[in-house]
Each structure stands twice: as C-alpha cells, then as structure tokens.
Design a protein that fits this description.
By secondary structure, the protein is of the alpha+beta class. The chain has six helices and eight strands; from the N terminus they run αβαβαβαβββαβαβ. Helix 4 links the parallel strand 3 and strand 4. The N and C termini lie far apart (86 Å). Pfam families: PLDc_2 (PF13091). This is Mitochondrial cardiolipin hydrolase.
C-alpha cells in the first residue's frame, strides 16, 4: 500500500515537472518568435530639395526619390491600425495608400487642421466620405502636428508599433520640393507619449462636418 502511495506521489511529481517543462519550452519558443518578428526601428528620413536620384517605386506609379520610397514603405506598413495627426494631406500617393489600407480593413483615425481640411487637393473629405473617422477643431490656433502612429492599438505581440514624426507635411511640395525630415522609431516610451497626445486630441476634437 505504501509502495502505491509513494509511486503515485512520484508519478504526480514527474507529471508536474514534465508539464512545467512543456510550459517553459512553449514560452521560450514564443519569446524567440516574438523577438524574431519584432524589430527595432530607428531611422531618420531626410528629404532634400533638388534630389534627382529617382527610381521606380513599389508604392507609386511615378518614379520617386529614395527618401520618398522609404516614407511610403513605412506608411504602407500597418497591419492593424494607423492614427494620423497631420496639418495637411494632399499628396495623391499618400491618399491612395490610405484608401488601400482602409479597404484592407486597417483601422484609420485622422486628425487634421480645420482650415486645411478644405484646401485644394485635401484628401480629408475623400477619406471621410468612405467611412474613415476624421476629426477637427475650429479654432484660431493651428493644428500643426505632423505625426502618425502605426499598429499601436494591436494586441498581437508579433507586430512592431512605431511612430513617424517630423517637419513633413504630406503634400507634393513637402515630399518632393522641400528640405524636410521624418523620424521613424519603435522606441516604446516615445511611441507611448505620442499615443497619449493623440488620444487627448481625439477626445478634444470633433467629428468633421463637410455639409
């Protein structure tokens, strides 16, 4: 009888040890998988007036500069969501990418300056018409931010959240005719600070009304 009790106890301990080993191995594999998919992003994209090294683009029908191609690459990166806080958006390549993201099911939120929402070529009306939430605030103060957040609301550990911020407005002039800069980073504390700023504005600003 005592033998059976001892054997049962040892069997239970062995089972628990084996189960713990399986769980440990699972989380180790999961950690390696996450680390292999998640990548640190730290890049500064510099736009220079008069750049002539144009190349065929994967994201545009036109030839573009290497800086423009890198910018479009990151803009096309969302797998879950993109939150945009931008003074003005008129560039057709940017507009086309945002529409494609929308139709792919990527969640888009846009905050834009109230006056610039009405400017010639603004894509705010087009996005709002197709169901993208757009917000503004009629004020004498400019909404002059220029940043966007990628995959910051995703629960998937395999996705890398990042922010794009700098001097760049998303216009033809800025993307092809100005000296501009965009910093792209996945640095967690910076991404979180931008996300907090965006959420505060999203609450403060109101749904756009083009009527």
């Amino acid at each position: 009888m005592a033998y059976k009790v001892i054997f049962g106890t040892l069997l239970g301990i062995a089972s628990m040890t084996f189960a713990s080993h399986l769980i440990y191995n699972f989380y180790q594999r999961r950690k390696k998988q996450v680390n292999s998919h998640r990548k640190d992003i730290n890049e500064v994209i510099i736009f220079s007036y008069g750049a002539h090294d144009l190349k065929k683009s994967k994201y545009s029908r036109c030839v573009v500069t290497p800086s423009m191609e890198r910018f479009l690459y990151y803009l096309n990166g969302p797998r879950h969501n993109i939150d945009i806080c931008m003074y003005i958006i008129t560039n057709s390549d940017v507009s086309n990418i945002l529409m494609k993201l929308h139709y792919r099911g990527i969640k888009i939120r846009l905050i834009i300056d109230a006056d610039m929402a009405y400017c010639t070529g603004s894509c705010a009306r087009k996005l709002e018409k197709h169901g993208v939430p757009v917000r503004w605030l009629k004020s004498t103060n400019l909404m002059h931010h220029k940043f966007c957040l990628i995959d910051t609301l995703a629960d998937d550990e395999l996705l890398t959240p990042y922010v794009m911020a700098g001097s760049l407005n998303w216009t033809n002039q800025a993307l092809s005719g100005n000296w501009e800069d965009v910093t792209v980073t996945s640095q967690k504390d910076l991404v979180q600070q931008y996300q907090v700023a965006f959420e505060k504005l999203w609450i403060l600003f109101k749904p756009i009304d083009f009527t």
